[in-house]
Amino acid sequence: MADQYAQTLDGEQPSATGPLRWEEPPEGPVVVLLDQRRLPAEEVELVCTDVPALVDAIRTLAVRGAPLLGIAGAYGVALAAARGYDVAEAASLLEGARPTAVNLGHGVRRAAEAYGTAVGRGADVRQAAAAVLAEARRLHREDAEASERMARHGLALLDELLPGGSHRILTHCNTGRLVSGGEGTAFAVALAAHRVGRLRHLWVDETRPLLQGARLTAYEAARNGMAHTLLTDSAAGSLFASGEVDAVLIGADRIAADGSVANKVGSYPLAVLARYHHVPFIVVAPSTTVDLETRDGASIEVEQRSGREVTELPGPLAPATAAGAAAGPVPRVFEAASGVSGALVAPVGTRAHNPAFDVTPPELVTAVVTEEGVVSPVTGAGIAELCARSRQVTIS
Ligand SMILES: CSC[C@H]1O[C@H](OP(=O)(O)O)[C@H](O)[C@@H]1O
């Protein structure tokens, strides 16, 4: 069953067999996830039959990435409605699973509103559940559509900023198909450049502590045949200094009304390096990641995660070499946040500081790319105008 993920991750058209899908087996509807904690060593499915299971999957990053969290949240409300759970309680549990990515709350509230509207119009339980599922599927489709449009806008921006037609891109964390209903956000731009022969190289930050870059972006880049090199987060500075980076492409988990950008921890230092070395720092995110209700960067809640994610290595890890695969099963080093103890990288009892995100001020962001177009320079007025445009567009 998991093989189908291998096909979709090979760059085929987005389909229902991406990192998340809805299924209706005889025993009742389920949300099926590709368990991202097990990648790249294993493509394992996680079948969520109830909302607590989906909340746990969100909290432990079995499913992750801002746009996909919104989609997962919407399907979670659909699961509650279809299985006769209290929809309001389910929505509250789902929305509270992780605080920083605004998409999660957006997806949950949109699905819950669809339920309320249906009930208000006299729908019975089955009809209301169907209305929620239809809204979740609409959100899923809209995100896939947004991904394609962001890739086009982002590639055009790269070509405008970097004449010469062959780009060396640095990415941080993971922003491909594994965070999206389509081909992702920032990674989708790099993939679009690759497909037209204008990606000279992809530099992949490993992205400590959970190694989304090493485990997931390298996995997706390899499956798409993209020339890429993994680096430790701390090696990025010398790469800029050696003139090896033409642009930085990152995603976002929340963009505040003033254009401040919350993204995976380590993004802000990259923005400072990019500014010092006169390299474009480009944020790629759907308009569902913009939160006009959050005034500025200081108002964004940054998720603080367990110090164990810093003091222990995540896993399971892929075989060390191709031969490693022949050497038998991959050692399960540590299943992040699952509590299964793994390889310690610090003395027992060491306290660790583990913010999952940081915030980059708008003045360090060259451009924000959404499905509606590009904002540059990044100002509150520009962000608001972009959101106004997205409200006028609906995907049927
Ligand atoms: C474009 S959403 C991807 C975004 O989400 C990641 O966070 P996490 O892996 O903790 O869900 C990271 O911030 C990426 O930039």
Automatic annotation (TrEMBL):
Pathway: Amino-acid biosynthesis; L-methionine biosynthesis via salvage pathway; L-methionine from S-methyl-5-thio-alpha-D-ribose 1-phosphate: step 1/6
Superkingdom assignment: Bacteria
Binding site for substrate: R64, G65, A66, R98, Q212, N263, K264
InterPro entries, per database record: IF-2B-related (IPR000649), IF-M1Pi (IPR005251), IF_2B-like_C (IPR042529), Initiation_fac_2B_a/b/d (IPR011559), M1Pi_N (IPR027363), NagB/RpiA_transferase-like (IPR037171)
Active site: D253 (proton donor)
E.C. code: 5.3.1.23
UniProt region (Disordered), positions on chain: 1-24
Keywords (A to Z) from UniProt: Amino-acid biosynthesis, Isomerase, Methionine biosynthesis
Reaction(s) catalysed by this chain's protein: 5-(methylsulfanyl)-alpha-D-ribose 1-phosphate = 5-(methylsulfanyl)-D-ribulose 1-phosphate
Site (Transition state stabilizer): C173
A molecular function GO annotation: isomerase activity
The protein's role, per its UniProt record: Catalyzes the interconversion of methylthioribose-1-phosphate (MTR-1-P) into methylthioribulose-1-phosphate (MTRu-1-P).
Family label: Belongs to the EIF-2B alpha/beta/delta subunits family. MtnA subfamily.
Protein name: Methylthioribose-1-phosphate isomerase
Organism name: Streptomyces spongiicola
